[in-house]
Amino acid sequence: MSLWKCFKMAVSSILSNKMRSMLTMLGIIIGITAVISLVSLMSSMTNEVNSVFEDVGIDAVLINVMDRSNKELKPEVVQALADEHPDVIRGQSPTVSMPAVIKNGNDSLQSTATGVNESYLGLKKLNVEYGRELTFIDIEKRQKVCVIGTYIAKEVFGGNALGQTIKITGVPYEVVGILEEKDDSEEDGDDDCIYLPYTLATSTNKNAKVSSYAVYALNQDMVEQTEALIEEMCDKAIGDSDYYNITALKAIADQVSSILSMMEAMLVAIAAISLVVAGIGIMNIMLVSVTERTREIGIRKSLGAKQRDILSQFVIEAGMLSCLGGVVGIIVGSALAVGAGVLLELTVRPTTTSIIVSFTVSAMIGVFFGVMPARKAAALNPIDALRYD
Amino acid sequence: MPPLVEMKDVYKIYRTGGVSVHALDGISLTIDRGEFVAIVGQSGSGKSTCMNIIGCLDVATKGTYKLNGRAITNYTQDELAEIRNKMLGFIFQQYNLLPKLTVLENVQLPLLYAGMRESEQRRRALESLDRVGLKSKAHNYPSQLSGGQQQRVSIARALAGDPSVILADEPTGALDSRTGREVMMFLQQLNREGNTIILITHDNSIAARAKRIIRITDGKIVYDGPVEGDVTVMKMHGAGEEAPEDEKAKGAT
Fold this sequence. Notes:
The structure holds 2 protein chains of 2 kinds. Chain A is α+β, with helices and mostly antiparallel strands. Chain A has 2 domains: 3-52 and 255-387, no CATH class; 72-237, no CATH class. Helix content of chain A is 58%, strand content 17%. A 6-stranded mixed beta barrel of chain A has the order 3-4-9-6-8-7. In chain A, helix 2 packs across helix 11 (307-344). The longest helix of chain A is centred in the last third of the chain and has 44 residues, at 249-292. Chain B is an alpha/beta fold. Chain B has a single domain, classed as Rossmann fold (3-Layer(aba) Sandwich). Helices cover 37% and strands 26% of the residues of chain B. Chain B has helices at residues 47-54, 77-87, 103-113, 118-131, 147-160, 177-192, 204-207, 231-239, 246-252; strands at 5-16, 19-31, 36-40, 62-67, 70-71, 88-91, 165-169, 196-201, 212-217, 220-226. The chains are: A alpha+beta, B alpha/beta. The interface between A and B is medium-sized, with 23 and 25 residues.
């Protein structure tokens, strides 16, 4: 018997009992909807988290020297390390953070200024849109200049900030550069930033020492080597490891993403349980259907239907039920995921892999759970089946 | 050429709860091509078991059964299905048409399982429907037809595969006497056209329309011969309850 005929038979059988077919499919629909929407949401969250780390610099290793240490990690030492290992380290910069109250006329604004060297913006892949970057001369000569983010530029100067002077904790700085907008110019976002020469930042600091650095590895694979080199350097310069700490963002990112993927696996497992339940529902309905159609099976057998004819008829029907459920589930799940993405302000796109996998899984569930009832139907004795009422 | 149907000392024994029931108790018979045989018996006589074995729906416990010279022993379910498909046409008391298929699709079923091409299936099924005079109802559903018409559809289905034997199990059982007579006349006509027909019935008046009667009681053959020699049928015939001749039947309708 041709496959096409089998499909036609399955379709007409499904259509002849619409209510029951719908209810049977509902299990699969819910299961696949859950899988698709949860996996899509999770993967977009993972992407989001990864992109945050990427922004900060997943190749960065941060050094922080405690204030209570009487020893010092000098910028020259860190620079020397970077110069010595160009195959491992891309560059370094001191990062001296200080709170900044910016005044322009009557407006005042709270932000954070970071003292850095001339290579920092490049290392962090921050581009200057207007004006220029900080230069070696600025750092050496302790020029009172700064580069600011678009948030500051807009809030304090209404956008036209180049060449203006801003007072940071009482000291006037000339704005020489404005960065490209990165994060919708929101407060506390990536655009709420001020960069100035670290040589000036340390002078306003109470002990005038640089206590933190960002060292950038050549690439992600070099992060561990970079960490080792820094460890060695700090050990030499400071000695007691209680007085400094070294943080590789990649390690944190790896941990976060492993937690996220564990959560994803758990969600998939829960959704998978609902798929198994749905499969049992299909099996149940197919068993009922076989019993109901015992006489039909008897007639078909008396007319020469072989076991595999009956078997394929029921397996295809079960498979088709669950495939249909799978398709509906994929559509509903994708819609739900995209909808949730809009609410959570995430870009959620159901992945092709998850769609293909869900469809395959639903087809397999139908076939797997359809085989048992179908075998029962195929094994029926034609005499008994013909007599069945 | 071997006889079409040949049973030699066939037993069918069911064991239920330690008691063995001999549904068929040593039956031997031969049926040749072109015969119109009625197997008659009361319910429980073993006639249905006999039909099941002739129809390859069941196999004998003991003895040999040959269909067209081929011994039906040690066959798998699927092989039996293929023999039924190729050599046998069934007509049932309850018509046994599938209600969700059209008349045409119902008649196509045995051809479908024979693995025939769709176009060929249609052609043959329509031809077969034409023979029973229901070509115009091809696209109706069985439920839209009268009982007599449904039985004619099931006859068309039995004929579609061009079988060696047509097995009719109480074909008039669900019909009123007039429609029943029509169906019987149709079977007689098919027989005149050369088809071998085996009729299973408990009704002597129906059996009287065959050419030969095999009477079964308690799993044994008690009479096998022409209609005229069967005492029970002749007694009834004499009582004038039912006329065996075509002409009289026509006159009655």
